[in-house]
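---------- Forwarded message ----------

FYI, see the Reticulon 4 interacting protein 1 record below. Original note from H. follows.
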Amino acid sequence: VVSMPAVLKLSFTAIGIPSRMPSGYGATALNMKRDPLKLKTGEAEFPLTLGRDVSGVVMECGLGVSYFKPGDEVWAAIPPWKQGTLSEFVVASGNEVSFKPKSLSHTEAAALPYVGLTAWSALNQVGGLNQSNCSGKRILILGASGGVGTFAVQLMKAWDAHVTAVCSHDASTLVKKLGADDVVDYRSGNLEEHLKTLPLFDFILDNVGGSTEKWALDLLKKWSGATYVTLVTPFLINMDKLGVADGMLQTGVTVGSKTLKHLLKGVHYRWAFFMPSGPSLDEIAELVDSGKIQPVIDEVFSFSEVPKAFLKLEGGHARGKTVINVISKQ
């Protein structure tokens, strides 16, 4: 296990952050993680560097780093409680870093780590899906055309699952190209009623949240181990609104009550979050180099166009990831 930090010089970086983060979303929880003893003043978090993904070249390594060396081409996703990646240099822990897929340029590679690890957390680490148990399983992905959704579709097809993807009509061609077996346009009539006409599912990944949670679990096969995993949780919102203690208490009550409620109905209910992991990126890199997963890039901006890139993110309806080229060399 590498514990000392590796210092990376970034060739490129991608914006891999929730679009609400610049407006303060999650500030309470992330500030607690950054400064749990509150040793710093209230203004110490600024200036705050945004951006989560990075693909670049190692410049220096800490004394305890033996797996990487200067000059290695690597990629990583930096956790949100650390300073971000929209800069020429980034400090990352060795266990957050992985060798970049050889088949990708830095621009392409920068589009995958954050969304890939978020989907990997939901599907594999929380949902329990893997290459050996997915064959023939029916998977429903709600919100299939964004960064996490496009990665999830490809991962499930790489593991031989049957994938039903929900997105808008204008994204259906992209999602079909990524391998989805069935594509449902959420704008064409009553989505809930349409999905109820399909065979029941073994697993649901929810990237949308909101009202979908009220009916989506009825689409699962009962008493078969079927699981619903959502990436849209009230955890950070609760802590922003209620403070650390009350927010954590409310969150615990919410997830506990929902888990028990649905367990009694014969299905599993889970929350998932992004988790940084170099070893998981190693597995993702193998899938990329074998041609089973490809980056989906919506648009590429230069470093001087960062404000424009954030305005695009705030508009929503992304088709994959938005990438920032920090250095013009690819």
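H. also flagged this: The chain has eleven helices and 13 strands.
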